[in-house]
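Hey all, sorry for the wall of text incoming. These are the two entities for the joint prediction.
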Amino acid sequence: MRLKVLGSSSHGNCYILERGEQTLLLECGVQWKQIQQGLNFDLSRVVACLQTHEHKDHSKSIREVMQAGINVYCSQGTADALGISSHRLHTVPPLKQFTVGDFVILPFPTKHDCAEPYGYLIYCISTGEKLLFATDTYYIRYRFSGLNYIMVECNYCGDVLKEQVAEGTMAVPRKNRLLESHFSLEHCKEFLQANVTTDTRKIVLLHLSDDNSDAERMVREITDLTGIDTEVADPGKVIELEIYPY
Amino acid sequence: MFSLSNEIALFKKTDMEAITKRVQQFINNGELTLPADYSPENAMKSAWLMLQETVDRDKRPALQVCTRESVYNALLSMVVQGLNPDKKQCYFIVYGKKLICQRSYFGSIHVAKMVDPDIVDVYAQTVYADDEFEYEIRHGKEVVTKHIQKLQNINPDKIIGAYATIVYKDGRELSTVMTFDEIKQAWKQSPTKPIDDKGNIKAGSTHEKFTADMCEKTAINKACKYVINASSDKSIISKYAQMMDAELKEAEVEAEIEENANQEFIDVTDYTVDDTPEPQVEPQPTLEIEPDLAESEETPY
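and here's what came out:
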């Protein structure tokens, strides 16, 4: 599989996951034009767009995506909050898997300050690869087995946040909001400890904060902890996801 | 010198001397003035007795599970804010290995008066559907101008809101008015979870039994929080009061995560079976969409 990062921050989130002739769009929180360019203007390969929640940095181009004939999958709560309806919109219940093209997808509830956010467990039928996609969540209730690739949010460093509050550069209400909406490095590490196995090949860190993250430190600490190749989803990056690297 | 560390060292009664010294430093530096009738030693003695009875969720004694650092911080914060557990101005809760001192609404009134000495009183009232109730917004602040209640109006099923009023030395009165929905929203955040998923007050909860009292406490807490948070950053009392609120929030979130995260195994099954919710339709390549038209659509979130 190949992962193209179009955006991974509060400025916009969108990833293109390619596997053979089929492509999954993960979120659409960037300009539609950027998505078209990312897809090389070939929309025929896109089998679905998976939407985590309604916030604009994740859903900016959702109407254009549907108008372009791409099926969008999200929770009922997300659809209601977005106020959208279309025959391209498929609201899916939590923890009930569905199949699109070569992918089996299991949506699961995440924890964020919005209506009904989801993360997605994505299984590729023809290759047996398993990928987890979870962003904008301050923890994940679930555990998974045999994950090959983990795309997970790592938004802020708890200690940096504390220092900022002490120095007065971060307001307490904003800090409280962060605590109950985004994954800290510390909690992300606990999540990875519970889910990384010998099957895991790659960890991709998503949605780093502009103000209180430290990409280098996050990658270093997570690599040290898990021993797994880890990188940050910088916009424009193309990340190869391979079970057998040689 | 008292050294702080993250390792689990237990707090001893003798450690309280370090707190007394620290408070004395604040006083000597002119950073802190405690009320004349407040004795840090007495407050700490009361706290010490209370801590003997404080247990965590698993009924283990607080002083055997909480870090020395968290007990030190909780007691220091209590003294700086001039709180006395004997007067029910604060109480202690154990979250994991952390001891948290939480202000009661009495405590919040006390701290608001300390950070703003012009405050002489804070009171609250519940508003019922049949009450005559009016308020104005003056300079962005709510001022209750009329509240006439009849005894027969008082009915827990007819609460429409509550307000807290701060009375100043010069006679000014400023209020914080909350609708019942706003109050219930605040209760939703409470760790005691008095509101169910449908937004109703849980039967048998303190909030159900004493709804009006709880409404008034919530309004008072909101009014005092505003005073405490709006006061000068230089005020060490306000700094510690805000830190106490922040620590409580942190501890609540930590406890939630510790209890719920990474628990239940889920996985995909029967991959070969196609149970697509909708039949697959080949997506059609599309024409460019007018960017202006697309941007003009509202995206409520």
